[in-house]
Amino acid sequence: FLNRKLRWVTLGGQYDWTQKTYPKETPPGFPKDLAKLTHGIFEHIQPQAAIVNVYSPGDTLSIHRDVSEDSDAGLVSISLGCDGIFIVGLEETSTNSVKHAVLRLRSGDGVFMRGLSRYAWHSVPQVLAGTCPMWLGDWPGGSSHPDVESEVNGRFAAWRGWMANKRINLNIRQMRD
Asked: Residues near 25 by Cβ (< 8 Å), separated by ≥ 6?
């Protein structure tokens, strides 16, 4: 079931996909360890919400802009698993053209969009099958990595191989100033 149905999960502030807003009430707490790590690397933001996208080969993310936050703080995007093609573009009003970049994001890559790029159009048109790092492919059901304890190999054995054809993208943001 979870192999194809799970597409996204939210952490902290819960985005209302119907209204395209964050609720006014105080959001659930953002995971403290993830907030500390994120703020330690990207000190310009206070992590308050995240969307965790789960992709399989064949899945896409349509072109969009992230404009629902009441903050100009940058967006942090961290990739795990299979490689993904990421397209980002900005309209250059003075020349009436579009500047764009096509990036192949690999497991462990991060993208920080701030300033003008904070509101850039972006998409993920392709997830590349068979590109998950070998040491991550059996997570969470086990690992060939020597530092992973055998308890993990037993407890989550039913999940072995789940990550081999998955891409997880963690998108962290500040909802309000």
From this structure: none
CB 101 within 8 A of CB 59: no
Q: Are 13 and 49 in contact (CB under 8 A)?
A: yes
Each residue's pLDDT expressed in tens, for the chain with a length of 177 residues: 556 666 888 999 988 878 888 888 888 899 999 999 999 999 989 999 999 999 999 999 999 988 888 899 999 999 999 999 999 999 888 888 889 999 999 999 999 999 989 999 999 999 999 999 998 988 777 666 666 555 555 677 788 888 999 999 999 999 998
Q: How far out from the chain centre does Cα 49 lie?
A: 12
> From residue 77, how far is each of 21, 23, 106 by CA, in Å?
20, 22, 12
